[in-house]
Amino acid sequence: MQPAERHGYRADIDGLRALAVLAVIVFHLAPGWLPGGFAGVDAFFVISGYLITRLITAALEQRRWRLADFYQHRIMRLLPAYALVSAATLAAASYLLIPDDYLFYTTSLAASWAFVSNIFFSMLSWGYFGQRAEQFPLLHTWSLSVEEQFYFAYPLLLMLLHRHWQRYLTPLLALLALIALLCSQWQADQVGSYFLLPYRAHELLIGALIARALERHPPGPRQAGVAALAGLLLLAGSLLLLRRELPFPGLYSLPPCLGAALLLYGGARANPVSALLGRAPLVAIGLMSYSLYLWHWPVLSLLRYRHIALDGAAGVAVLALIFALSWLTWRYVELPLRRRRLSLRASALRYYAAPAAACLAVGLYSYASDGAPQRFAADARELLASYSYERDLGGACALRSGVAATVTAAYLRRHCGFGAPAEVGVRPAVLLYGDSHAHHFKPFVEQLARQAGWRAVYHIAGSCEPFDLAEPGAAATVCQRRNADMLLLARQYRYVVLAGRWQYRSQEALFARRLRQVAQALDGGHTTLVLFKDNPSTDADLSRCVLFRRRGWLPAGSDCDFRYADVQAAQGSMDREIDRLQTAMPQVRVINAKRVMCDQQRCLTAIGNTALYKDGNHLNAPAARLLAERYLALAANPLAPSPESTEKRPVDARADRP
């Protein structure tokens, strides 16, 4: 997203920049208006590859190329404006963001100044289009990191090829572009493919190839017009027809990239399309496209975080704000500093090292203080403290999604215990397993186990319900193998507690059948099956809702609580299947946390000064303990031993078998 080059200036390129940045802004403001607007970034990559190749090859051929000058120019063109946006965004984030979100933000801020924010965002499971992505004010810096990484490596590559294999430069660039495209197409990790340079390099190299083509084979008047028109149609069609659900980039990135490439190629000669792109209004927007790109996403993200709707008049006002900030930044930061002549050392110290060190210090402080909760008043800090959540999946007790592991009873006893204190020679009586909802119910089960005097163990696998919900004949999955292993282990325990986000993927009939099969497999022995009905869930993030409600920041008529009718509509069928199973098999015990969360009108998201949710569907740890206390005040402990089974059994050989 760099500013326009002045060497051999072409107004149509700034017009193309204007189309690209407007597409991105419209997509982020109202995705339904321009579903493929995210491909505007791909057009920027093509432009960058074209300009940087033209600049470097021309300097190399004229023997006036200096790498230090190149990096000094990049610093002065890109970093002062980004330093301003970083400072403004940090101030707003420090006021608005709750600790967990602030910790993520400050980490991304430090990563962006290390030019690795694309790597940071690639490590987060929700990706560029995920719902949580809107909570990251610096998400858009991934593309800046991609470009900076390209700028570090590409000039050195061009210097090497120009010196030793100049005649093969274009074929080698084409080969590299093809390899990158194929890697992008066949990369299984869609999040990594979207963010990382190796899977985006073909887009920058397409621009490089256009620069080479114009040096060797510039278009004639007719060719220029046809190329520019075809490019405009390809780019416009991509912006209108691409969808976020498609596996992008891969082959789907070719239409917008080729569209931008053809516009660059055709614009080398006068033609109607390029003349249109060179009109003053588009050029004016293109000149400040870098500032527009920098400002638009933090403004949109932080306003949405504050629950401000961005439609109608509000949307127009926000656009005006974005353009005003961008013009001021372009006029009073970009232009003056771009013309300053400093040494590489001076520019690097002043405009890179100093702000990067400051952002790193902020990130370290935020990490050390766990999101700097002291930014809030005492009552808000008390509420925020309840957001803590046993969410870190990893190791053999709590697996991340898709991770395979073989677990034995001995391992669980040694490493995954909780509840009553462990005693030598006494094996755990309770096994808890399931998906991440079993994980958030762990403090609840711990309260029950402690009251009953039982030692418990647990095994969690993210996104892995505790019994197989795949249709018959489906290929065996990590979840299926894990559940089969756990069912074999389950008979060694007095109580087996299962919990999951039942409605997430389940079909009612299949859920009922699998539930019955598990109950029957555990029937007939000393093992009692205990089932959790799921807690109310939503796809919206409730982590900050209670605090914002208290501050009066929610829109009129909005509330954080669930409507009970909506909860019943979403979960009622699964709850009824659990009730039917208990009727048919009275020995099955059921825990319904909704008894202490809901009345006939609503289900709470906070009780007193304790927020119940970490996000839209996971309870936090203090909430789970509070719900257990309230549940035990209403109902008998489902882990309470019957009179004939209170004797603790010693460990035997079976405890160590898989």
From TrEMBL:
<keyword id="KW-0808">Transferase</keyword>
<dbReference type="InterPro" id="IPR002656">
    <property type="entry name" value="Acyl_transf_3_dom"/>
</dbReference>
<feature type="transmembrane region" description="Helical">
    <location>
        <begin position="349"/>
        <end position="368"/>
    </location>
</feature>
<dbReference type="Pfam" id="PF19040">
    <property type="entry name" value="SGNH"/>
</dbReference>
<dbReference type="GO" id="GO:0016747">
    <property type="term" value="F:acyltransferase activity, transferring groups other than amino-acyl groups"/>
</dbReference>
<feature type="transmembrane region" description="Helical">
    <location>
        <begin position="40"/>
        <end position="60"/>
    </location>
</feature>
<feature type="transmembrane region" description="Helical">
    <location>
        <begin position="308"/>
        <end position="328"/>
    </location>
</feature>
<dbReference type="InterPro" id="IPR043968">
    <property type="entry name" value="SGNH"/>
</dbReference>
<dbReference type="GO" id="GO:0009103">
    <property type="term" value="P:lipopolysaccharide biosynthetic process"/>
</dbReference>
<feature type="transmembrane region" description="Helical">
    <location>
        <begin position="168"/>
        <end position="188"/>
    </location>
</feature>
<dbReference type="InterPro" id="IPR050879">
    <property type="entry name" value="Acyltransferase_3"/>
</dbReference>
<feature type="compositionally biased region" description="Basic and acidic residues">
    <location>
        <begin position="645"/>
        <end position="658"/>
    </location>
</feature>
<keyword id="KW-0012">Acyltransferase</keyword>
<feature type="transmembrane region" description="Helical">
    <location>
        <begin position="110"/>
        <end position="129"/>
    </location>
</feature>
<feature type="transmembrane region" description="Helical">
    <location>
        <begin position="16"/>
        <end position="34"/>
    </location>
</feature>
<feature type="transmembrane region" description="Helical">
    <location>
        <begin position="81"/>
        <end position="98"/>
    </location>
</feature>
<feature type="region of interest" description="Disordered">
    <location>
        <begin position="639"/>
        <end position="658"/>
    </location>
</feature>
<keyword id="KW-1133">Transmembrane helix</keyword>
<feature type="domain" description="Acyltransferase 3">
    <location>
        <begin position="11"/>
        <end position="331"/>
    </location>
</feature>
<keyword id="KW-0812">Transmembrane</keyword>
<protein>
    <submittedName>
        <fullName>Acyltransferase family protein</fullName>
    </submittedName>
</protein>
<feature type="domain" description="SGNH">
    <location>
        <begin position="414"/>
        <end position="632"/>
    </location>
</feature>
<dbReference type="Pfam" id="PF01757">
    <property type="entry name" value="Acyl_transf_3"/>
</dbReference>
<feature type="transmembrane region" description="Helical">
    <location>
        <begin position="248"/>
        <end position="265"/>
    </location>
</feature>
<feature type="transmembrane region" description="Helical">
    <location>
        <begin position="277"/>
        <end position="296"/>
    </location>
</feature>
<dbReference type="GO" id="GO:0016020">
    <property type="term" value="C:membrane"/>
</dbReference>
<keyword id="KW-0472">Membrane</keyword>
